[in-house]
TrEMBL record, chain A:
Entry EC number(s): 1.1.99.39
The protein's name: D-2-hydroxyglutarate dehydrogenase, mitochondrial
FAD-binding PCMH-type domain sequence ranges: 85-264
Enzyme class: oxidoreductase
Main subcellular location: other
Role according to the record: Catalyzes the oxidation of D-2-hydroxyglutarate (D-2-HG) to alpha-ketoglutarate. Also catalyzes the oxidation of other D-2-hydroxyacids, such as D-malate (D-MAL) and D-lactate (D-LAC). Exhibits high activities towards D-2-HG and D-MAL but a very weak activity towards D-LAC.
Cofactors (names): FAD
Gene3D superfamilies (UniProt xref): 3.30.465.10, 3.30.70.2190, 3.30.70.2740, Uridine Diphospho-n-acetylenolpyruvylglucosamine Reductase, domain 2, Vanillyl-alcohol Oxidase, Chain A, domain 4
Record's keyword annotation contains Oxidoreductase: yes
Lineage: Eukaryota, Metazoa, Ecdysozoa, Arthropoda, Hexapoda
Oligomer and partners: Homodimer.
Organism of provenance: Brassicogethes aeneus
From TrEMBL, chain B:
InterPro entries for this protein: ET-Flavoprotein_bsu_CS, ETF_a/b_N, ETF_b, ETF_beta_N, Rossmann-like_a/b/a_fold
Upper lineage: Eukaryota, Metazoa, Ecdysozoa, Arthropoda, Hexapoda
Name of the protein described by the UniProt record: Electron transfer flavoprotein subunit beta
Keyword Mitochondrion: yes
GO molecular function list: electron transfer activity
Species of the source: Brassicogethes aeneus (Rape pollen beetle)
Similarity field: Belongs to the ETF beta-subunit/FixA family.
Length: 507, 253
């Protein structure tokens, strides 16, 4: 059953877990290692201990062969996914238990050894790799599912579980993860929680601040903080879990999480639409919200230049060439006849209003997968463009796309490609400016302009990717001085020696 | 102009993980997403292209199976097929339906619809039989051109390029004929919204095997369905000597 025929098709349609394709894209440009962060950026090494044999023997005693010190084996842990930054750590630690994490962190705290926590290393703001020689604390071996409760829908697992694997495990219980993103084959739930990752269905399932019911974290002094509640409601005292959701490893190491998981939808439908203008996209978005109502699960937009990234570099087939704008509208529901009727009515309406020029709709998993690739693999495809300036911005919906033409005007032929796509339904656009090579001149033409522009509209300079290493100096474009001050005080309180993910998040 | 009959089978979508029923009588199909057999999609695409090139006058799709088979017929209609025929087969007869039954049905319908060409996928991705085209040709006593990767229509005949082991074979045969579609024949289109809407108004005729005088009584009994053995985890060895040692240990060298 399902042997030759299906295998042949797999090759043709390139069905593969994203993990493998990420690894491949990474290898594709291997020849060009990014410049060391310490050389490219004006940043001073903090007053942290240099790694000694004493430190190493402590780690080896604790973890055995789960300590990596070989320079070439350490390399992947030193370079971020988009190869924008590179550290030179010679020590990667792979604990298997919370107790091991606790012992590592308390030892580092005592000896003032800086730590860079790392999940799947798919973060896009340079937060997941060392800036200098920080010890990398990889959570990849903490990958056990501890409990799945079919009735309450609560998943309890370790931080190093890969998002896609969790989704597969949950699927056997009729449940799904409340978030989904292009990096699902590689990113960890711990990394997702630490970055408060958004993704493709935030519109429907909300953000992790709502779905994370509880977590366990290790504080900078090594203390284990058990906030691993599995209760939907728990108003006893301050909600400490929020200190760790989205703080990007700067306040503690997330070791376990409890997630509220929604039922896996029985009916999934996907429409892929071609449109002529951004104005029409806004009209279709509004109609989708009203007419699809509770079944709407995702509403994404892609401009022509972004989709070309997938068709040109990755040879993904676009069933609907060539429109200036595209929309992906997905529904999740429990009754396909009901959903299809609603979706068809909606599609007929937007077609007959002339808002949508052409489109296709399907509920076949294989076809939906192919269409989603056109959206999910843009980040991967952009790597082939050269150097990419990436911006992850929230703007009021009317101004959602305005930065793209503005930047085109500003940069002209300096850029190879200026493209915009993203989570339309959540007002979050990914602006990507591809250039042949990084130069200071282009850099200065783009920044801080992009941030000033965003700030002018009271947008966010980091909608979902976080601040990491690359954005601390821009945090004030979206946060008041008082807010940043309080963040600094919290950091001081929780990590007085500043060993957790230094040089990141706060200016 | 030619009249073309295409076979479209409803199978479990290939992006879905297949699960064997605990009692080993088959695979789990309840609540599992199905779609058109991908090789049949290629057959439909080719037929529709023949129509667009004004070589075919009418394209008719046939699906044999339970009520839900009409969904794949709708997909075919949305891709550009003119009309659908649903041959309803359910229960035990459906569970043990074999290419021999389907080819008898297709042969009867080819005669009834006065088809000049029958195009089907080279195999279905669920049972992997690769027999339907061949048996249909036999029942009709028509020439067959299997594993087609290219079809060109001449005056009274067709030239078909076939994918054979290690290369291509080009053959010419008279019409009417039966063709089976291989992977590289074309890339099927996605149905566009206007066509999906139009497809809702296209006719689907419902028949039973009995109407066609075909007996679908089971000819086989499924004894057991099992998962393929799971691959044993490999080990990473430090050097060639260790590898040779292991091979000796296992008695391989
Ligand atoms: C009939 C009834 C039904 C209820 N049902 C529910 C229910 O279903 N679910 C539920 O969660 N609760 C329920 N409650 C209790 C609930 O906590 C309160 O009704 C409501 O949330 C408190 O709002 P309030 O403005 O009355 O606050 P108050 O009672 O005035 O204050 C509550 C607390 O908040 C503080 N506080 C109030 N305003 C501020 C402010 N602006 N800034 C800082 N601190 C402030 C106060 O100091 C106090 O500690 C119910 C109460 C009643 C009487
Ligand atoms: C193709 C692609 C698509 C993406 N799409 C989206 C998207 O749609 N939405 C979105 O929000 N993001 C997206 N991202 C970026 C996103 O932030 C990451 O993919 C993901 O959330 C990070 O998880 P990770 O395990 O890879 O974490 P890493 O990259 O390893 O780490 C991210 C940050 O969290 C910290 N960290 C990691 N694990 C822990 C832990 N256990 N405890 C404490 N700190 C930790 C790290 O120090 C770092 O600061 C995308 C990335 C790629 C490559």
């Amino acid at each position: 059953m399902f042997s030759r025929g299906a295998r042949q098709l797999e090759r043709r349609l390139r069905i593969q877990p994203l993990g493998t394709s990420l690894a491949r894209a990474y290898a594709a440009g291997e020849s060009a290692l990014p410049q060391l962060t310490k050389d490219r950026y004006p940043v001073q090494r903090g007053d942290y201990a240099e790694l000694t044999d004493n430190h190493l023997s402590f780690f080896k005693n604790l973890l055995g062969h789960r300590v990596i010190t070989d320079a070439s084996e350490c390399e992947p842990y030193n370079i971020d996914w988009i190869k924008s930054v590179r550290g030179y750590s010679r020590c990667v630690l792979k604990p298997k238990t919370t107790e091991e994490v606790s012992k590592i962190v308390s030892f580092c705290n005592e000896h003032k050894v800086a730590i860079c926590p790392q999940g799947g290393n798919t973060g896009l703001v340079g937060g997941s790799v060392p800036v200098f020689d920080e010890v990398v604390l990889s959570l990849s071996q903490m990958n056990q599912v501890l409990d799945i409760n079919d009735t309450s829908g609560v998943l309890v697992c370790e931080a190093g579980c890969i998002l896609e694997n969790l989704d597969e495990r949950l699927s056997d219980h009729g449940l799904m993860m409340p978030l989904d993103l292009g990096a699902k084959g590689s990113c960890h739930i711990g990394g997702n929680v630490s970055t408060n990752a958004g993704g493709l269905r935030l519109l429907r399932y909300g953000n992790l601040q709502g779905s994370v019911l509880g977590l366990e974290a290790v504080k900078a002094n090594g203390e284990i903080l058990d906030c691993l509640s599995t209760l939907k409601k728990d108003n006893t005292g301050f909600h400490l879990k929020h200190l760790f959701i989205g703080s990007e490893g700067s306040l503690g190491i997330v070791t376990k999480v409890a997630i509220q998981c929604p039922p896996k939808p029985k009916a999934v439908n996907l429409a892929f639409l071609g449109l002529k203008s951004f104005e029409d996209i806004l009209k279709v978005l509004k109609k989708a919200k009203h007419e699809l109502g509770e079944i709407l699960s995702s509403c994404e937009m892609i401009d022509e230049r972004s989709i070309n990234v997938c068709t040109e570099h990755l040879k993904v087939k676009n069933p609907l060439p060539d429109y200036p704008f595209y929309m992906l509208i997905e529904t999740h529901g429990s009754n396909n006849a009901h959903d299809e009727e609603k979706l068809n009515q909606f599609l007929e309406n937007v077609m007959s209003d002339g808002l949508v020029l052409d489109g296709t709709a399907t509920n076949e998993p294989s076809k939906m997968k192919n269409i989603w690739e056109l959206r999910e693999r843009i980040t991967e495809g952009l790597l082939y463009d050269g150097y990419v300036f990436k911006y992850d911005i929230s703007l009021p919906i009317e101004n959602f796309y305005s930065l793209v033409p503005v930047m085109k005007e500003r940069l002209g032929s300096d850029a190879v490609r200026i493209s915009g796509y993203g989570h339309l339904g959540d007002g979050n656009i990914h602006l990507n400016i591809s250039v042949k090579d990084f130069t200071q001149e282009i850099y200065k033409k783009i920044e801080p302009f992009v941030y000033e522009y965003t700030s002018k509209f009271r947008g966010s300079v980091s909608a979902e990717h976080g601040i990491g290493f690359r954005k601390p100096k821009y945090i004030h474009y979206s946060k008041s001085q008082e807010s940043v001050q309080l963040m600094k005080e919290l950091k001081k309180l929780m990590d007085p020696k500043g060993i957790l993910n230094p040089y990141k998040v706060l200016p | 102009m030619a009249r073309v009959l295409v076979g479209v089978k409803r199978v479990i979508d290939y992006a879905v993980k297949i699960r064997v029923k605990p009692d080993k009588t088959g695979v789990v199909t309840d609540g599992v997403k199905h779609s058109m057999n991908p090789f049949d999609e290629i057959a439909v695409e080719e037929a529709v292209r023949l129509k667009e090139k004004k070589i075919a006058s009418e394209v008719i799709a046939v699906s044999c199976g339970p009520a839900q088979s009409q969904e794949v017929l709708r997909t075919a209609l949305a891709m550009g097929v003119d009309k659908g025929i649903h041959v309803e087969i359910t229960g035990a007869e459906y569970d043990t339906l074999q290419p021999i039954h389907v080819s008898k049905i297709l042969a009867k319908l080819a005669e009834k619809e006065k088809a000049d060409l029958v195009i089907v996928g080279k195999q279905a991705i669920d049972d992997d039989s690769n027999q339907t085209a061949q048996m249909t040709a036999a029942y009709l006593d028509w020439p067959q051109a299997t594993f087609a990767s290219k079809i060109e229509k001449g005056d009274k005949d067709i030239t078909v390029t076939r994918e054979v082991d290690g290369g291509l074979e080009t053959i010419k045969c008279k019409m009417p004929a039966v063709i089976s579609a291989d992977l590289r024949l074309n890339e099927p289109r996605y149905a566009t919204l206007p066509n999906i809407m139009k497809a809702k108004k296209k006719p689907i005729t419902k028949l039973t095997p009995k109407d066609l005088g075909v007996d679908c009584a089971p000819r086989i009994q499924v004894v057991s369905v099992e998962d393929p053995p799971t691959r044993q985890a490999g080990v990473v060895l430090p050097d060639v000597d260790a590898l040779v040692g292991k091979l000796k240990e296992g008695g391989h060298v």
